[in-house]
């Protein structure tokens, strides 16, 4: 929550006395209008009847719809605060994001919608300067819109197609591609995710390319080495057929077959000699002849 400067405290005291309100109520409305860029506010304070909305030159809504005295009181204090903010503004208000918190709490419970703090990036002497005001990379320049929700900050730079998001101490910069961003949301519950709205509807922030994190560009992952292509059955069959037709393999097979035949002949000759069908001399001559062929 922004802190009031001495000038801001003096304004709160003076307006509280003028309108018969506590300093807490005036401070609450001052911050609400400041967050609405000096022209609108969403508030929730018992001295204003609880929840309500105000827009300069437009509608004023309070919880007690037929309490016209309360409605007039809200309009008067809001107009005076808006004038004071305009008189103490040292730079133009910037645009703001419309943010929606779902499943969590933001000034209420359940699904609530609140104006993100677009004035966080502006300068107003009623508030103590934020030491972390310009938290995005300097080279991005001045954002078109800024906002904050649930400890997450946003800064949108439409002209350079960049979006800066601060989560904790990390500053992420995204390429917004051709999206025209108009708002942000956070889904709470069984896991938190950040979404934004554009001309394409609701989009998950994780779908945008990351340009840098804390000023360092992401390192692209090293591609895994390609696995060797598996041989197809047809190629294996062709390879086997080629191997079967290899002259050297055919020669080896013929040689092995011939050796087996010679040894088989020797065994048969030995059997004939034992039975007395051939003499020892005939056997030796045949054996020498066959062995010479090995």
UniProtKB/TrEMBL annotation:
What the entry lists under Pfam families is as follows: SHOCT
The SHOCT domain sits at: 266-291
Bias (Polar residues): 239-257
User: Which ranges are annotated Low complexity under compositional bias?
Assistant: 91-119, 227-238
What are the transmembrane regions? none
Give the Basic and acidic residues compositional bias ranges. Answer: 284-294
Location of the region described as Disordered in the Swiss-Prot/TrEMBL record: 91-137, 219-262, 274-294
**What's the protein here called?**
SHOCT domain-containing protein
The organism's taxonomic lineage, starting at the top:
Bacteria, Pseudomonadati, Planctomycetota, Planctomycetia, Pirellulales
